[in-house]
User: Fold this.
Amino acid sequence: MITFRSVVSGCGSYLPEKIVTNKQMEEMVDTTDEWIIERTGIHQRHIAADGELTSDLAIKAAQKALASAALTANDIDLIVLATSTADQTFPSTATRVQAALGMEKGAAFDVQAVCSGFIYALATADNFIRSGQSKNALVIGAETFSRILDWEDRATCVLFGDGAGAVVLSAGPGTGTSDDQGILSSHLHSDGRYNDLLYVDGGVSSTQSTGYLRMRGKEVFRHAVVNLASVVKEALEFNGLSADDVDMVIPHQANKRILDATIRKLKIDPDKVAVTVHKHANTSAASIPLALDDMVREERIARGDIIVLEAMGGGFTWGSCLIRW
Ligand code: UT7
Assistant:
């Protein structure tokens, strides 16, 4: 019997000050504003300043999430931080956030599932809360993808940006039905056979270097639409809900065409989809909490709404979380 549900009690986000427009990208690589907008929907991206680290972005987003939950770091007993662009190989970026927030108790660790990272982190924290091991958890997605881009590869460098988003999950009462408030389900998947379609060509154990992001975009695109539609369907079926019951979809923001194709497949009203890719570009694990925070601030989400989060990324990894707000 379920006795606890993870309720989103606050959220916040942070974007680096510097904005790079498509027009500015034209001066760096052989591309055009028109191509980028037509093929991806991206108009601009935020890029971290020299010396501004993933943890710096994460700390700012976490502080805003705590303030919006009316909690302090002392109330938090768990930090799960999703990133593929950690400050250091170890310790985890989550522990740096923990120290900066002034937390001296609880546990903090990173989760690495690339663009699906936030869904993986949310599912992890949800399991801690539902089992009674955690009362208030900070779940963060934070990235400085600009540091792993090959700025001479036009096929990838125009697609990504930096940023961070965070939510506070708090234990609330649950009966085990889809009428409960909070996270109703999470579904995670991975298939490591597709490693070479989206990866970084370096690493501690292999090259002793950081490496650069490499992607076979067309293939990733095809898999993304199929996997995302399927994992949203899985979430709806699990909860006995239909596409009409969904009030808002908050997808990982990789490409506007992926968002559109997935929503068409699911027959969900396009007005119910959060779109921030035009202003944030693809911020990997940060994109969902960034979009979620935007939707909350724009008051497009109301208490009781059914919200579906979905993402797909390198690995491949993909997943969904269904939340009654
Ligand atoms: O977040 C994790 C998941 N990641 C994704 O979901 C990304 C999925 N993939 C995509 O979003 C798209 O595949 C891309 C946006 C990456 C590419 O769009 P596409 O429609 O699949 O283009 P393409 O890769 O097939 O390239 C079409 C043409 C090529 O030229 P040719 O061979 O037709 O002459 C490319 O060289 O566009 C060219 N091209 C560019 N042209 C101008 C590739 N990048 C650029 C560019 N500017 N930046």
Summary: The mean pLDDT is 97. The chain has two domains: 3-174, 182-324. The chain has ten helices and 13 strands. Residues 31, 35-36, 39-40, 115, 154-155, 158, 217-218, 220-221, 224, 254-255, 258, 282, 312-313 surround oxa(dethia)-CoA (CB under 6 Å).
